[in-house]
Protein 1
Amino acid sequence: MMWEGINQRKFPRVAYKCHIRIFKDGREDDLNTVTENIGVGGICVVLDKQLGLFDNVSLEVFLDDDSKVECSGTVVWVVKNHPKVESDETTYDIGVEFTDMPEGDKAKITQKVEEILASQS
């Protein structure tokens, strides 16, 4: 079932996988993963570690054209994924809203989202 709030977003999101580093509590504890979707307003990632709702994080998002976007973010939703079989580990879908993003980085993400949307039509 798709989250009902998706149509209430201010900025569209597109399915897009790229490498991301998430730093919580300074730069010591970084989490490496890939995005599930991205938009100018934020991202969704799947982690094997839960982050707390409203946690502040620092982000490095590596777009496929070798450019990097750096900004802060706030965890705005967390959904626990229950394992399908006993051997699977529990994962968490984490929604992060971008904050303090420079205009140039917003433009990079906007361009990427528009490219993906254009290729789908």
Protein 2
Amino acid sequence: MELDQTVLAEVRRVANTDDDPGKINNHLLSILLWCRARKVEQLILQYAADGQVAVVQNGVFKGLRLALPVHAGNALPMIIGSYEAELHPYIAAAVKRGYAHIVNIGCGDGYYLVGMARQMPESRFFGYDINPAAQAGCRTTAANNNVADQVNIGGLFAGEDFAAHPAGQTLIICDIEGGEDALLDPTRYPALKGHDLIVEVHEMCSPGVTQRLRQRFAASHDIMLVDHAPKRAVLTPALHNLAEIDQFLCTFEGRDGPTPWLVLTAKTP
């Protein structure tokens, strides 16, 4: 009831603003989708959750015990296993390669950091997030998956810290809502030239960032642009009768605009 009243209050607030009608409609639609997604999430958790832990059902991180609630990203596609599935081949290749260090800047609740740590027992993992709640969630997820000894969690990442990780043996995974434009600069931080990177780029936060990153790393890295692709939920038999909109919400990642990825592989380790 408390949640319903909060949602109704937000609907009234948005409907009574002087914003552009298109913006109002989009905001109201987002609210409605969010509410429906929470209902679907409750149903999914009946099958996938164990207390305050959700078990990822499919995908490259199948079996990951993810702490709830999730503070970064949409929990439903994480639990289903479709979250950012476009990156699954690159994550699988990174696991196979066996980097000595994985540095996850914007690690959230540890979906990538802990998901990879479970599969790379000889590697060390460094996660950074400016949200204290996400940091706590990441520590809990690491403990839930028995990899706490491999994982180090911090707050704000400083560019000078790239040099603390071994060249040719480090993968940087970066998702910092536009902050990649200032941070990922190999002129300021030359150690970047020896690291491989997977970067989510946020054009809506920093217009032109994709091209700027391409130019900065052109000499030192092979660069691949990975765009979004349609997804289909892989559901347990008990959930096959979900309405079509609910199956869509299982894979809905809630992006406000295009956020493709750049996969950068150092030419000379």
